[in-house]
Amino acid sequence: MTDFVSAEWVSSRGDDLRVVDVRDAWEYDGLGHLPGAVNVPFDSFRADEHGAESDAGEGMLPAEDEWARLLSEAGISPESEIVAYDDHHGVFAARFLVTAELFGHDPDRLHLLDGDFSSWQLERETSSETPDVTPTDYAVQRPASTPLVGPDTVAEAANDSDTVLVDTREDEEYDAGHIPGAVLLDWRDLVDDETRGLLAREEALSVLESAGVAPEKRVVLYCNTARRISHTYVVLRHLGFERVDFYEGSLTEWEAQGRPLETN
Fold this sequence. Notes:
It comes from Haloarcula taiwanensis. This protein is of the alpha/beta class and 264 residues long. Helix content is 31%, strand content 12%. The strands form two sheets. A five-stranded parallel sheet has the order 1-5-4-2-3. Strands 7-6-8-9 form a four-stranded parallel sheet, with helices on one face.
């Protein structure tokens, strides 16, 4: 399953690991990056709300052929072990990893750096050199099942005592309008401001429990455009939650279909 890994773990893996920096190219080139990291900017794998997958109810996913091209050019194969990072507490990097999982990359080979570029550079070396990579012929092979759910499933979730529907946006956004029955869990509440990574395990579980998110329940996640739920999804899977569903269309699709919202 997709999980968090430490800077020490990344440093120890050497050439066995494909490190992916999802920051903008100017940051990658101008500010430096992790040694050996390739650059796959967030905007390059992010369709807008009218992207190729939107008619399938899959929101902001890029087209399969575009995703395959990006990974091929980055020297990534379906067998590659990947760690991704950004400079925003991991939320953009998590989106890269979730996209990879949804397009069939083995989740056991997908990792999120615990911390981000800012935390890495405080104690570890960075590089300004772009690594030479050998292009691959990456092919998307969608898995037989994924955590993706559609709006009808989401609408039913609020009435299921075994399920908790989770809005991962900020308080103000939630108060302005949320899917009926959803609880609020700002994705940033699971981030340690000092380390810029994940809270300690017991602290993270306490935050989740306070929001009504328990390991024994099925969890359905949404936000606006599926970026913030990507981080929460990786957190929950890392913590051992087994039933985590992912509403890719999120509020972009929900509102476009004229479905109801609750306000506080």
